[in-house]
Amino acid sequence: MTPSWKEQLNSNLRKLRNNFPNSKVVLVGVGNLLMGDDAAGMLVVQNLTSRLPADSWLIPLEGGPAPENCTGAIRRFTPGAVIFIDAGDFNASPGEIMFTDCGESDGVSAFGHTLPLSVLGQYLEADIGCKSFLLIIQPEHIDFDARVSPRVLEAVEEINREIEHLVAQVY
After folding, report:
1. Is 148 within a domain?
2. Region label for 143, one of left (φ > 0), alpha (ψ between -120 and 50) or beta (otherwise)
3. pTM, whole model, 2 decimals?
4. Residues 81-95: pLDDT tens digits?
5. 131: nearest Cα among 122, 140, 144
6. Is 123 a domain residue?
7. Would residue 127 count as lying in a domain?
8. Which of 13, 75, 129, 137 has the most CB atoms within 10 Å of its CB?
């Protein structure tokens, strides 16, 4: 049986913290706030910015619709890992969440990005030696000027709770 996204996230972060206790993890919110459920990743990091301690080892960063433009900021943090949070189609029910390694993200279709997140993640891995992951929320609809669907909002809140829980744990 495949581990849940929470188990995979927890396992990968635990390994990183055990092997590199001073390492940071950058959480990059990806998406467009004007495109319905495509706002999911941005909403996660916006919420975490106000909910995480200022000195947290998890650093939320808004990547918007062009996360490749924030590689300079990511480099400055010299993270051990980067997690891109985005809406993407992986043939699941709206609001379902998937966690995967950027290099193993075949079958995930993101919306409106000029550079696939898997390519961006692999670039960062080669450039700064970090690990890269995708935390993907299955959207219900991606339409201009639409509201975020209730199921995707629930997924955003579930991710926020899990990340807050992980920060509170001592690895």
Report:
1. no
2. beta
3. 0.93
4. 999 999 999 999 999
5. 122
6. yes
7. yes
8. 137
